[in-house]
Write a structure and sequence with these properties.
The chain has a two-stranded antiparallel ribbon. By secondary structure, it is an alpha+beta fold. It has a single domain, classed as Alpha-Beta Plaits. It is built from four helices and two strands; from the N terminus they run E-E-H-H-H-H.
C-alpha cells in the first residue's frame, strides 16, 4: 500500500463487513483509496475462489458501494486498534449490541 501513500495498521471483520485501521497521507483522496481497495480485493478474491463465489455472487460487484470513514488521533489510536483486533472474536446478537438513544 506504499504507492497509495498509506499503511495498514490493523484489520478485522465480521461475517458481513470488515474494519481497516489505516494510516494515510493527509493529501490522499479517501474515496479513491476506498475504491482502489475494494477493486483490488474483489479481483483477488474472485480470482482465488471463483468456484466457491459463483454460488453466491452472480452480479458483477463484490462489495457494497457504501462505506464509513472516521478519523482518530494518537490519543485514541490504541483503543481503536483494540476494537478492530477484537472483530470476529465472539458471537453477539445485533439486538444486544444496540444502545438506547441518548436522553
Amino acid at each position: 500500500m506504499e504507492h497509495w501513500r498509506c499503511a495498514l495498521i490493523e484489520f478485522g471483520g465480521e461475517a458481513d463487513h470488515v474494519h481497516l485501521l489505516v494510516g494515510i497521507h493527509p493529501a490522499l483522496n479517501i474515496a479513491t483509496l476506498i475504491n482502489n481497495l475494494k477493486s483490488a480485493s474483489s479481483r483477488r478474491v474472485r480470482n482465488r475462489f471463483p468456484d466457491h463465489l459463483r454460488n453466491f455472487y452472480r452480479k458483477p460487484y463484490f462489495w457494497h458501494r457504501a462505506y464509513y470513514v472516521g478519523s482518530v488521533g494518537n490519543a485514541s489510536l490504541d483503543a481503536v486498534k483494540r476494537y478492530v483486533e477484537a472483530q470476529g472474536t465472539r458471537e453477539k446478537s445485533r439486538k444486544a449490541t444496540r444502545r438506547p438513544p441518548p436522553a
